[in-house]
Write a structure and sequence with these properties.
Layout lengths: L1 E8 L2 E6 L3 E6 L13 E7 L2 E6 L1 H4 L9 E7 L2 E7 L1 E8 L9 E6 L2 E6 L1 H12 L3
Parallel strand pairs: 2-10
Antiparallel strand pairs: 1-2, 1-8, 3-6, 4-5, 6-7, 9-10
């Protein structure tokens, strides 16, 4: 059994394992970083720390929407912000969650959900940030 936070990006319902979720914030100023991959909208400051803002819309092949909310996710030393349209809430998921790709389709209470593999997402982001 796993706790999953469900959130929305336009017409998609997404989910991420609850232990990775630290907080929800109102997105404010973001510093642009020249030459950075399109998946990043920039960096935001959170309690004195620079946090990359990562648009899942771009990874899904959608137009980036200007969302006002951000999910702060943390995996060990890796912290990132995902802009989201809204937060649906926490739900229990009883089956084993797939983590083959960044996005893994699952059926959740009769609704199609894209489960986000935090490990795969962090690896992808780290590879893009380390390119100079």
């Amino acid at each position: 059994m796993s706790q999953v936070l469900l959130f929305r990006l336009e017409d998609k319902v997404m989910g991420v394992l609850a232990p990775y979720v630290r907080e929800t914030v109102v997105l404010g100023h973001q510093s642009m970083v020249p030459g950075i991959a399109a998946v990043f909208s920039g960096l935001m400051t959170l309690r004195g720390r620079a946090v990359p803002v990562v648009h899942l819309d771009t990874l899904l092949g959608h137009v980036v929407e200007p969302y006002d909310l951000g999910l702060i996710l943390e995996d060990g030393p890796n912290v990132l912000c995902l802009p989201v349209q809204d937060v649906i809430g926490y739900q229990r998921y009883d089956d084993l969650l797939p983590e083959n790709d960044i996005f893994n389709p699952i059926e959740f209470n009769y609704e199609d959900v894209e489960f986000v593999s935090m490990g795969k997402l962090v690896n992808f982001i780290t590879s893009r940030l380390n390119v100079v």
